[in-house]
Each structure stands twice: as C-alpha cells, then as structure tokens.
Specification:
Order of helices and strands: HHEHEEHEHHEHEHHHEEEHHEEEEEEEH
Shape: globular
CATH superfamily of the largest domain: Creatinase/methionine aminopeptidase superfamily
Largest sheet: 6 strands, mixed
Low-confidence stretches: none
Oligomer: single chain
Structural class: alpha+beta
Distance between the termini: 12 Å
CATH topology of the largest domain: Creatine Amidinohydrolase
CATH architecture of the largest domain: Alpha-Beta Complex
Number of helices: 13
Radius of gyration: 23 Å
CATH class of the largest domain: Alpha Beta
Number of domains: 2
Strand content: 15-25%
Mean pLDDT: 97
Number of strands: 16
Strand order of the largest sheet: 4-3-2-1-5-6
Length: 382
C-alpha cells in the first residue's frame, strides 16, 4: 500500500481545503482575546497535536497564543508521545505504572495548570472531552474560562491536508479488509465470523499496530437485515450464490475510514445487477456534494433513485455521514439535516436496497466536498 504522504493532491481538492487547523484556532483565539486554549480527551488531543495511542491514558493539550503546544500525558507515555506527537513539549503526570491512581484527572489538571501559558492567562479557552476538567482547572488558575467547544466543532467540520491523508490511510485499510472478505468468501464454506476476522486481520496486519475496528458482516437472506445490531457476524456459512454485505470501518492513527461493499459467493446475476445500479446511484450522489447542498437534498435524491430502480425494495438507513476523528460525524445525509455542505468536508456516502425476507445490497465510498462536486478520496490523493 502506497504511503499517503507520497501521493499528490488533486487540484480540485487542494482548492477546497482550509488552512491548517492550528492557524484557524489561533485566529479564533485572537478574536476572543484568549491567552491560551486547553483541550482534553483523546480526540481533541489527536486533532491538534497528532498524538494518538492505543489504550492511551487521559490527556490534555495547551495551545499558547503564539501557537506553542504543550502535551500532557501519563508519565509512562511521555517518550512515545515525544516521538509521535507534533507538540513542542511533552509533560508527564502521575507515578510510574498503570492502574495505581484511580482518579488521575486532578493530577492531569495540576500539570496543565503549571504550564506558563495557562498559569499566566487572563482568559483561557477550554474544550473538555473528559468531563470535569473545567472545574478542576478553575480551582487551580485565576483565568476567566471561555468555552472552546463550538470553535473545536467548527474546526473539525473541515479537514485540512494532513487529516485527509490520515483518513485515506484508514480508508485504504478498509479496502484491504474488503479484499480479504471477497477472497475468503469464494470457498463457499466460510462462516460470517471468519469473514469478519479476515477483514480485521488484513487491515491490522498491514497497519502494523492494533486498530479500532467495526464491521457489519451479513450473508444470504440475512443481508436483508441491514446491519448491526439487528444481525452481527455469526457462525452462518456464506454459501455459493449468496450475497455478502461487508461494512468495514477502521480507525488508525486517530482517524477513521469507512467502506461498504456487496460481494457475491460465486455468481448471482440479480445481486450483481443491483450492486451495479447502486454504484451508479453512489456516483451521482457523490457528484452532488457541492457547497450549499444539504444532506437532506442528497438523501431525497438518493432515496428516489433507489426506490425507482428497485420496486418492492426498502432504503431504511441514512445515506451517509461525515467522518474523521469519529466514524459518524456531522453533517449527515438524512432527511432532517439541512446543514449546507462546505468545501473540505469529508463524507461517506452509502446507498443500499433491502428486500424483506429476500436479500439486500449496499455500497459505500468516501468523498471530499469541492466546488465541482465530491471527489472520491482515492482520487483526491493519487
């Protein structure tokens, strides 16, 4: 798999991407007359420092008015955080070992409060992804607290270039999982749970570290059950001629990728034709991801095309969603989401059709919103 860092950015996408999120945050800090911002929780820390660690402890990050970043992690994480993060400095809290201190948040607050940008602040922005850090800091510093939650939310809506590359890496791991499912299913003897495990193994082994992994894996008539939790991977064998829906979702380096594909064990002309039609509908929906369009509009058009193409079929789920630091972010392709799309948003789009008592099919790709419509992520960086 080619490293995303080696890939060139499509010109349409380059024109759509915002400035780096740290610069955007500093501009907001200037508007709010903040001396520093302190953010807490894995997603906030990953977003602004690049640090993501499997099973990491509670963490925080301070961004000074000059843009200097100070990362606070558990003592034993300091060395790895110094290597993996983009922070200018890393501070540790607590004592050596894990599971000894059952209430580590006051210790984290002590370290963050000691950072000069915080201890000397008059106005301090705060985004708390852990819960309770605001009150802990208020007892330790005299700065006026200002919520940074809204600003962080806005920053996360638009992905900048390095985020796009991280999402692409996770997305490509998803497609390796899909390939493993397709190959393993062809025996006609593989159980759903074996196909699920094949996808996980392919993605995780290629990444070289533990990943976070979600997967719908349905076969035969159970494909009409749509997704988890209605049906989860089971000992059922995916037999010759049956469809297999795999919705593979992977988080690596703090960012998520998402795919769905309908595989066929051997051959099934009816399912294969449905998949081809859904791919056409997917491409049309992707082309409609332009600034100013809404998820509601894209959903209505998608639903109409599906139901027109498949009399008697159902489309009982969302038509897509944004992704990045989580696998299911705003905005959403649903009837009620009237949020105007903006350049640099990244959305997974997933049309499907299901025949109760029969079978179902689903496909899904990830797109970047540009002025010319959505650009599929593997074309955005090629």
């Amino acid at each position: 798999m080619t490293s995303s860092a080696q890939l060139s950015l499509d010109a349409r996408v380059a024109a759509a991407l915002p400035a780096h999120r740290l610069g955007r945050l500093r501009a907001w800090m200037e508007e709010q007359r903040l001396d520093a911002v302190a953010v807490f929780g894995a997603d906030n820390v990953t977003h602004l420092s690049g640090y993501a660690r499997y099973y990491g402890g509670p963490s925080g990050l301070v961004i000074g008015r000059d843009g200097e970043r100070t990362l606070a992690v558990m003592r034993d994480e300091v060395k790895v955080a110094e290597r993996l993060s983009e922070a200018d400095s890393v501070l540790g809290y607590g004592i050596r070992g894990f599971g000894i201190e059952l209430n580590p948040l006051p210790l984290l607050a002590d370290v963050v409060a000691s950072v000069p940008a915080v201890s000397g602040a008059s106005r301090l922005g705060l985004a708390d992804g852990l819960g309770g850090m605001g009150s802990l800091l208020e007892r330790r510093v005299s700065a006026e607290p200002v919520s940074a939650d809204g600003a962080m939310y806005r920053l996360r809506l638009h992905k900048d270039e390095d985020e796009l590359r991280k999402i692409l890496h996770a997305y490509e791991l998803c497609w390796l999982g899909q390939k493993a499912v397709a190959e393993a299913a062809q025996s006609g003897r593989a159980r759903e749970i074996e196909l699920f495990t094949a996808a996980l193994a392919a993605a995780q082994t290629t990444h070289g570290e533990p990943i976070e992994f979600l997967c719908d894996l349905l076969s035969g008539p159970l494909t009409a059950e749509v997704c988890c939790p209605i049906h989860i991977a089971s000992p059922r064998v995916a037999a010759s001629g049956e469809p297999v829906i795999a919705d593979v979702v992977v988080r690596a380096n703090g960012y998520w990728g998402d795919t769905a594909e309908t595989h066929v064990v051997g051959a099934n002309p009816e399912v294969e034709a449905a998949r081809a039609t859904l791919l056409d509908i997917l491409a049309l929906a992707g082309s409609e991801l332009r600034p100013g369009a809404t998820g509601a509009e894209v959903f209505r058009a998608m639903a109409r095309r599906i139901l027109d193409a498949f009399p008697g079929g159902e489309f009982p789920h969302h038509g897509g969603h944004a992704l990045g630091l989580t696998s299911f972010e705003d905005p959403h392709v649903i009837p009620s989401d009237e949020t105007p799309l903006e350049p640099g948003m990244v959305l997974a789009v997933e049309p499907g059709v299901y025949f109760p008592g029969g079978w179902g099919a689903r496909v899904e790709n990830v797109f970047v919103v540009t002025a010319e419509g959505g650009v599929e992520l593997r074309q955005a960086l090629a």
